[in-house]
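Filed under: proteins

Residues; backbone shape codes:
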Amino acid sequence: MSNTSIEKRMINAIILHSQDLPIKDSSTPQLQTANILPRQADNDEQLIGLWLHGKSKHTQRYYKSDTDKFFKFTNKQLRQLILSDLQKFSDSLNNEKLTDGSKRRVLSSIKSLISFAHRLGYLPFDISRHLILPIPKDTLAERILSENEVRRIIEAENCPRNKLILKTLFITGIRVSELCSLKWKDLKERKDGGQVTIYGKGSKTRVVLIPEPLWSDLLTFKNNCSDESSIFRGRKNSQQLNPVTILRIVRKASQKAGIKKNVSPHWFRHAHSSLAIENKAPLHVVQASLGHSSIQTTSRYLHVKPDDCSSKYLKI
């Protein structure tokens, strides 16, 4: 047999066997094929379980709601999806009168799932890479309370526990979920006040300083409580307060103070960030105190109240 015939047979064999190989995404390393990677999931339900594992209950609730809505709309399994399915689902969200921010969150959940499935080798392509997400208007400035508004809200609250909750939200800038989970053992005294250890979003731990007089107010409020008990508890039992209760406290005090806005506990966090930066606190300090994963998140507060603008240099 001639060398030419042997070469032809080898080429034909390669072409024949290549038809049995899984199609690889150009963005996926060549080694990550179905012949090398062990199978991670047998069906979509198992894959979603892997995807949600380890995430917070809050995140799991939103992700599950978003993906349930998506699968109900498409009526397809993940391996049957094409890009147009994602685009049609994106268009359908317009009929639900969702804000661009809410729409972006839903689509981000779907992109996260599909991207995860691709990385695990469950899907040969990440079709979600080409799905364009809406860019919502930045409405942060609308949710920034002035120092005077914060003071009015706190002064409008007569209940000692609730007043202390409002003060703690503003002075520490912690999230409402972090406030609810605080225990007395998380507090530690310092020469000039105290500090609190917070186990927050993304399973990250940070320490926030508590200045006077808030530190003294907290110690007075503690009375004879054990270190293992929650700092802020319900009136009728020893259970910690939940975020919904904190929201009611904030809304009621805001209305009493004459603030005609839908103030939430997170607005105190925004006010903390904005006012701290306005008072020349370094960005990296604010980032560390608030537990922002990126300095870009913290820098958003720079644009809420800019110190300079080209409009100041124009006259008419």
Q: What stands out?
A: The chain has two domains: 38-130, 141-302. The chain is about 50% helix and 5% strand. The domain at 38-130 is CATH 1.10.150.130 (DNA polymerase; domain 1).
